[in-house]
Amino acid sequence: MAEDKSMKPEVQDEESVSILEEAADMKEQAKKTIQMIKEKAKEEDPKLTSSLTLRTILGGDFLTADMVRRQIWLFVLMVVFTILYVAFRYQCQQDMIAIDKLEKEVLDAKYKALSSSSTLTEKCRESHVLEALKHNKDSLLHIADQPPYIINVPE
């Protein structure tokens, strides 16, 4: 049993050394892997050629992050103008609807005024007034049989 106890520390030392070596190797490999990932995963876009072709436009390659960052205020301004355009157009349509409604009301009021005016004119005629007075027997007024007299007054 004494031999078993003496062998165990040596085996444990060899195992711990090999585990430490493996850990160091894994740590080194992890560093290399992280370095490779950092090199591949850059935030900058690759520089494109200065010529725009149909393929680059349709593919969207010309919309790089750098170009979008430089033009962000232009995009914001375009969105604001679009929203304002839609809002003003909506308001204009609402105003036009209100104008049409008011024009119809004015036309109805004109027709009512014309109708009232014609009814008033009809009721104010001399013949109708005399007829109404005769019918009610309120007055002795009647239509004159003789023409009016002309009286000349010298000055």
Automatic annotation (TrEMBL):
InterPro entries according to UniProt? FtsL-like
Organism superkingdom = Bacteria
User: Mind listing the UniProt keywords for this protein, alphabetically?
Assistant: Membrane, Transmembrane, Transmembrane helix
Kindly list the residue ranges recorded as spanning the membrane.
72-90
What name goes with this protein?
Cell division protein FtsL
Pfam annotation, one family: FtsL_2
